[in-house]
Structure formats: structure tokens, C-alpha cells
Write a structure and sequence with these properties.
CATH architecture of the largest domain: Alpha-Beta Complex
Strand content: 15-25%
Keywords: Aminopeptidase, Hydrolase, Protease
InterPro entries: Creatinase/aminopeptidase-like, Pept_M24, Peptidase_M24B
Number of strands: 19
Helix content: 25-40%
Largest sheet: 6 strands, mixed
Mean pLDDT: 94
GO molecular function, one term: aminopeptidase activity
Protein name: Aminopeptidase P family protein
Amino acid sequence: MPAVETDTRSLGAQKLAQAQELLRECALDSWLLLVRESMERPDPNLHFFLDQEFTWNSYFLVTPGRTAALVATGDAPDLISSGLFEDLRTYKEGPRASLIQLLQELDPRTIGINVSQDDALADGLTAGLRDHLVESLAGTTYASRLTSAEKLLALLRGIKLPGEHALVKRAVEETEGMFDRASREFRIGMKASEIADLFHREADRAQTPTAWSRRYCPTVAVGAKAAVGHVRPADETIQKGCIVHVDFGILRDQYCSDLQRMWYAVGEGGGVPEPVSRAHAAIVGAIELAANALKPGIAGWEVDLKVREHLASLGYPEYPHALGHHLGRAVHDGGGVLGPRWERYGSAPFEVVREGNVYTLEPSIHLKGHGLVSLEEDVVVRASGAEFLSRFPRELPVLSLR
């Protein structure tokens, strides 16, 4: 067999090259990323390439054939060391003349900038910095060539490279170990907030942040009366005959995991009630249906609709959220969503699934009298369909607690 070539470039260099390739698909001649005081006002896309912050106005221009950067002299040394940008220019008193000269040399017909109404992670350019850019380009033809780069950024974040898949997989596997260890300590009378403490302890031992705000990561729902959503764990306690549900993820090496697991604390009879076992089986079937449908070319809303119709056919109410979302450097990553065509999701459900995307699959059933029945799995899209990065436990774990 011929040897398989391995890309030895840094992941940042690979993502920069990927951006150059994707420009053509997005009908953009160039992409201009601007930042200033980037520690306090970060653009979420800069760190795809650089683990560096910038103080003064800094410009990164990418075209299919060239990469250029214009930064203040004090921000230049570490950027030079990175070797990422072929053309690196500096300024002392102000960048306007150098920026215009650079644009004149490349003369792009369209200049994508990071603004978007629907995609939060494509909206990294602050209003003030955008105004400054427009003023800097006043009197030139380039001010009228500015346009949104949201499609480019959706693809750049959404289409993960093999190195990114490996990083998400590592985070998922580490998180699954945390679920295993924490769940062994569940006991009757334990509060939801104490369950959260177990997961925080796991993250602290691993010296890794939680994937979203620690205030409600993990989100813990115990029993039928627990609040469900982006809420902090409360004081409901594990009792015999209740569902315990945990939604948790970590950020490892700048890539996230996002998993949901559930358990049933058996009562005196020792078995799982039929409504709970039936709902759990319905969720497992829904995830399998979604995974089989998740192939390149299908729109996100179409995958979501298949699952909604399946659960409705079994007599369950509509879940009040998307079936799944992109997962990567952010826990809600990418530009599309596996969700319904609701106003709150804007254009995101119409984005098509691409090979290399990493999604969560997380249908849910709010089972009256019992609580939240849900699992969340992390998958990568291959040419033939979804490949699970998580274990996908198809059997309902039973807790025999004292």
C-alpha cells in the first residue's frame, strides 16, 4: 500500500491554509480579520491560527494565494516567530497608509469581515473597530467592497480537520472517565448541587476548565420537579425511584466535549418503570435515526425534523430545542445547527451538513412524573454518515443506592 502522507504543519497553519481554500467556495477574494486589545475584546476566530494577543490595531489579510499581517512594531516579534504569515508588515504611528497600500497591491474585489446577524461566532468585529475600518478606507474603493465573512467562518469552524477530530475525541474520552468516577459516588439524599461538586472536583483534578460556565456546568436534573435548561444545580435530592440526569463537558487543549448521561435510582421493587424504560428506548432510537441521517448534503433542519416526527409518532411531545449543534473550540461551534426552522435560529438550520463536521445529538423527553430523559452524543460526519466519538450507552444505567 502507498504511504499515507501526514500533514506536519501546525494545526494553526493547517487552518490558515484551509481558510485560503474555502475563500473560493464563499465567493470571497479576501478575508480581513481585525483585533485590538484582543485579550479583553477577543475575536473567536483569531485563535484558530495564533495563541497570541494583540494590543494595537492588528490586521490579518488572507487571500487564496497570499497571507499578510499588519501589526504595530511592539506586537511583531512573536508573530514573526510563528512563521504563519508570508508577508508581515509593521507600523509605528498609524496603520492607515500601510493598510491601503496592502489592499492596493492585492486589489481584492470583495473583502470579508467578521460581522453577522445570525452567527455569534462570526460576529467578532466590534462596532467601533468596524467604524474605524470604514473611516480608514474612506476615499478608496475598498470601503464599498466590505462584506460579511459569515459563510467562510461557518465553514472554517464547522469543517474540522483530522487534528481537530483527535482533540475533540480526547476531550470526550476524558469526560466519559469523569462521568464514570463521579457516578460511583451517587447516593440517596445527595443534592443536585453536590453532584455538581463531584464533576467540578474531576475537572479540577484534571486541571481543565468546564466547557461552559462553571455556574451551570454540569447542569444537573434530579427527579420530576427539577428545573431544566441553562440553570445552576439546585437542592433536589436523589431518592429511590427517580431519574438522575447530568449535562457536562470540559475544555481540553482548546477543544470541547459535551455529553449528557442519565441513570435510574431503583425503588423498592428493584425495576425500572415501563414509562421510563420506554422513553429511554425512544431516545436511543432517535439518536440512531439522527446518526443514520447525518450525511453530507442534508440540511440541518431535515435531520431535526426526522427525529421530531419519530418521537411524535411514539406519542411524545416536541422537545423545545435543537436536536444538536456543532462542537469544537466552542461548545456551540460552527455556523449551522441541527434544529427547527424557528425564528430564534435564524438561517442556521438551513446550512447543509459537511464531511468533517462535529455535532452533538441530544433529543429529549420531559417525562411527566419522572423527569428528564435525554442522552447527548458527540459524532463526526464522514462521507458515509456519522461516526460516534462517544460511547453511546444504549442500556439505561440502574443505580442501586443506599
